[in-house]
């Protein structure tokens, strides 16, 4: 049974604006980000999208993006599942650092590896670092063993995909329309899987903020249609802006 999937990266956050590595730090949307979320909802409404269930992370920039978009669509009543598995990739000891300053210090090539490589994580947080997720109440119900001190995209994929298979896919299998409002790297993990992108090619993939990506999937969840609800020039410009964040 054919189904519809909408992937939406949160709007610009306060730390996107400040060009800082964010990861699991719970920062809010900037004013621009709220506007992006509102426009994404408007474009989904114009497309006639009727959401059956929505998923998001436990970080407010994604949660608020989903709220604003669903409000704009007049669909705030739809069930929402918040899951830590959809959190942004954990950037380890880089969290809070300015990306341009980090590029000046370590070189743009090294920062690109940390930001976009498939299997090379940034330096980890120490276990006693107060920014470690084991000190946060929202993760207190989890075995500390599963809480990361740093992640590569591969490690992020390893936590996203079981959640995808066990919790999201059953809704798609019965033809429902599913919306996921999440983060650059948790969505890169899903796009890598859906579009069968190689470990090498995923390095060049940048997910723009606040632009809904619409998938139509067949009975076996193969991609029938894949497009952003924006013109091609806007998508390219937004993706290029994301890529440029790691420049010195």
Automatic annotation (TrEMBL):
The keyword Methyltransferase does not apply. It comes from the Bacteria. It catalyses: (2R)-2-phosphoglycerate = (2R)-3-phosphoglycerate. Pathway: Carbohydrate degradation; glycolysis; pyruvate from D-glyceraldehyde 3-phosphate: step 3/5. InterPro entries: His_Pase_superF_clade-1, His_PPase_superfam, PG/BPGM_mutase_AS, Phosphogly_mut1. SMART domains: PGAM. The active site is at 10 (tele-phosphohistidine intermediate), 88 (proton donor/acceptor). Keywords: Gluconeogenesis, Glycolysis, Isomerase. Its EC number is 5.4.2.11. PROSITE patterns: PG_MUTASE. One of its GO terms (molecular function) is phosphoglycerate mutase activity. The record marks 183 as: Transition state stabilizer. Substrate binds at residues 9-16, 22-23, 61, 88-91, 99, 115-116, 184-185. One of its GO terms (biological process) is glycolytic process. Homodimer. Belongs to the phosphoglycerate mutase family. BPG-dependent PGAM subfamily. Catalyzes the interconversion of 2-phosphoglycerate and 3-phosphoglycerate. This is 2,3-bisphosphoglycerate-dependent phosphoglycerate mutase. It comes from Defluviicoccus vanus. The gene is gpmA.
């Amino acid at each position: 049974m054919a189904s519809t999937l909408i992937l939406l990266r949160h709007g610009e956050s306060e730390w996107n604006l400040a060009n800082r590595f964010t990861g699991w730090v719970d920062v809010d949307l900037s004013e621009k980000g709220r506007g992006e979320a509102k426009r994404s909802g408007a474009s989904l409404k114009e497309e006639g999208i009727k959401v059956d269930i929505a998923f998001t992370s436990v970080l407010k920039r994604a949660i608020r993006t989903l709220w604003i978009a669903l409000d704009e669509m007049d669909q705030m009543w739809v069930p929402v599942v918040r899951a830590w598995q959809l959190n942004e990739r954990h950037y380890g000891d880089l969290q809070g650092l300015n990306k341009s300053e980090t590029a000046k210090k370590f070189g743009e090539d090294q920062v690109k590896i940390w930001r976009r490589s498939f299997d090379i994580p940034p330096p980890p947080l120490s276990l006693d670092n107060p920014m470690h997720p084991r000190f946060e109440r929202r993760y207190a119900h989890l075995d500390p063993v599963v809480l990361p001190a740093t992640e590569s995209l591969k490690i992020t994929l390893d936590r996203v995909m079981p959640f995808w298979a066990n919790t999201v896919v059953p809704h798609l299998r019965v033809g429902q329309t599913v919306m996921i409002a999440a983060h650059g790297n948790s969505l890169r993990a899903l796009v890598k899987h859906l579009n069968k992108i190689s470990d090498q090619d995923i390095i060049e993939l940048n997910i723009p903020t606040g632009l809904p990506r619409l998938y139509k999937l067949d009975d076996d969840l193969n991609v029938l249609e894949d497009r952003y609800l924006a013109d091609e020039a806007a998508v390219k410009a937004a993706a290029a802006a994301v890529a440029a964040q790691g420049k010195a």
